[in-house]
Amino acid sequence: MDWQTEFMDAFVAAMEDLSFPAGDFHHRDHVRLAWLYARDWPEDGAQRCADTIRRFARHHGAPGKYHHTMTLAWFHLVAGLRSRVPDAGFEAFLEAHPELLDRQILSRYYSAERLGSEQARAGWLEPDLAALP
To answer: Domain range spanning residue 44?
Structure first.
């Protein structure tokens, strides 16, 4: 196993055992986590990713930060784009899709009203502007 794989495995393990520092979990880490779950668990990665982020937020005293539609939309966006370059490593994937570093990209798929609703925060809502890849 190479150091990059070990690093990625350690990241997922730290997220799942809730030892990853909350202050170090940024947007790029959300994208990385979605990419890893899409890579390693193609069948149930979306649910695993959502469960991990929900537990992480709750554990770190910020359950209100968890947003179900956003979490799953980011997962589906990353997984859909990942399927176009399945053998690329994470850095190569980001080079191919730098738009994923734009935190506002979901506004291409969701109206502010839909994504900002309590229904979207609590459960999955399909995009209302464009289909996710």
So the answer is: 3-122
pLDDT at 7: 59
CA–CA gap between residue 107 and residue 41 (Å, rounded): 27
Residue 60 inside a domain? The answer is: yes
Q: What is the pLDDT of residues 30-74, one digit of tens each?
A: 999 999 999 999 899 999 999 999 999 999 999 999 999 999 999
d(CA 53, CA 128): 24
The average pLDDT across 78-82 equals 94
Whether 56 maps to a domain, the answer reads: yes
The count of structural domains within the chain is 1
